[in-house]
Design brief:
5 strands; alpha+beta; globular
Length: about 110
């Protein structure tokens, strides 16, 4: 059986990023590396980007619960799962990174 994973890009306001850091700090010690282990993280215009090439199902659930607790104006999420139909884009934060999903057909 294949293990679920997804690619996730998450842009947060500075305030939301602090809330996420606090939530991660409350996790069991072996789960706290989640933010530090992001494949890319940067700050621009006070807005924070986190990008993970691989997020486990457990990590995805954690992020989903976190995002339900903050206003949609404080985040922008793009996620692509294991198959073509498993993708989402949510949140209303206008981010300076221009994070977005692309679906295309290619030949050759």
């Amino acid at each position: 059986m294949k293990t679920y994973s997804s690619t996730v890009g998450l842009v947060l306001t500075a305030e939301a990023a602090e809330k996420l850091k606090a939530k991660v700090a409350a996790l069991p010690k072996d789960k706290r590396g989640f933010l530090k282990n992001a494949d890319d993280h940067r700050t621009r215009k006070g807005v924070r980007l986190f990008f993970w090439n691989i997020v486990t199902k457990e990590e995805h659930r954690f992020l989903a619960r976190f995002l339900k607790g903050i206003p949609v104006t404080e985040y922008h999420l793009c996620r692509v799962g294991d198959d073509l139909t498993d993708a989402e884009e949510s949140g209303m934060l206008e981010d300076p990174f221009a994070l977005h999903l692309i679906r295309e057909v290619a030949l050759g």
